[in-house]
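**User:** Once you have settled down, spend some time on the protein underneath, comparing sequence with structure tokens, and judge whether sequence predicts the tokens.
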Amino acid sequence: MPAPRDTRKTPRRGLAAVAALPLLIGALASCGYGSQAEKTADADARPAAADGGGQKLSASEVRIGYFPNLTHATALVGLQEGLIEKELNGTKVKPQSFNAGPSEIEALNGGSLDIGFIGPSPSINGYVKSKGSNLRIISGSASGGVKLVVNPDKIKTLDDLKGKKIATPQKGNTQDVAFLNWISEKGWSVDPESGKGDVSVVRTDNKVTPDAFKQGSIDGAWVPEPTASKLVSDGGSVLLDEGSLWPGNKFVITNVIVSQKFLKEHPDVVEAVLRGTVKTNEWIHSNQDKAKASANARLLAETGKGLDPKVIDPAWPSISVTDDPLAATLKKQSEWAVKAKLLENPDLAGIYDLTLLNKVLKAAGKPPVSDAGLGAK
């Protein structure tokens, strides 16, 4: 597992294109597909600085983890444009980039990370394994951005998936669980451990999936963006958008989580970070083109290459950044994991603490969001 990298000295680059975000758990961006991001400098479009009155906060730094993925657009843009750090009144942001959920959860539980952007399955697993003692979900970040992309020469309808090899990013990850549930609802059978059955579920790292697809060793993949759009650029066809399976096309793909220790000791810092994420999401929605370019600039700094327009342009609109954690959909995803026998029936009571988020939203004139009955007491 690669060690997290300190990206404090990441060079700032331009802004210029977005459609609401935001993985999804995939890490396609870390493959370095595509061209360099465009360079722009439109500071006038950025939101005003902090409203914390200049008062110093209780911590000298805050360590924030995220993936170099489009589904982590709030983190990519908020860090690239300094929108999160503006709210911290001198408290320094120490960004740390991760390639997988388990390593980020390990860093959070081990005390080397304070706040993280991460998908629902790692959030659930981390909470359950610590018996509810180590983390809290404090905000949403992104919805959507997951697609079933197939080789159109081999698969023309959903029924054609039977007997085919379909990749998911990792056993038990968010997309893997969703695909296994979809298979079950089709009346087909797959062993969740081996992936063998009426459909062969091939657990494949998103960095490897495009090459596997081009080589023909898989027939398709149920994956997040931008992996899905990369497969389309390589000749694949979108057979299903997972959003179509959810009410209102909304389901959580990225949360914001925090160490309970850090939350208890530094609530003022957590609140400031949430002011930054809320302002970042608002700015993304209002400046989609600039935000897309900003996210790509951060990916360029992280991976050495940005995403090609033919990948990022179709990927970005399928992801939506959101402050709402869409808690009811996380609860449903945990039920699917239990159904697939990848998770014992978890007690998720207390996994959310949305107190500070709702305080920030109220101050911004926005409505509160719900924890679906899973909030800390």
Notes: Residues 34 and 308 are 4 Å apart (CA to CA). Confidence is low (pLDDT under 50) at residues 1-52. The chain has twelve helices and 13 strands. The two ends are 35 Å apart (CA to CA).
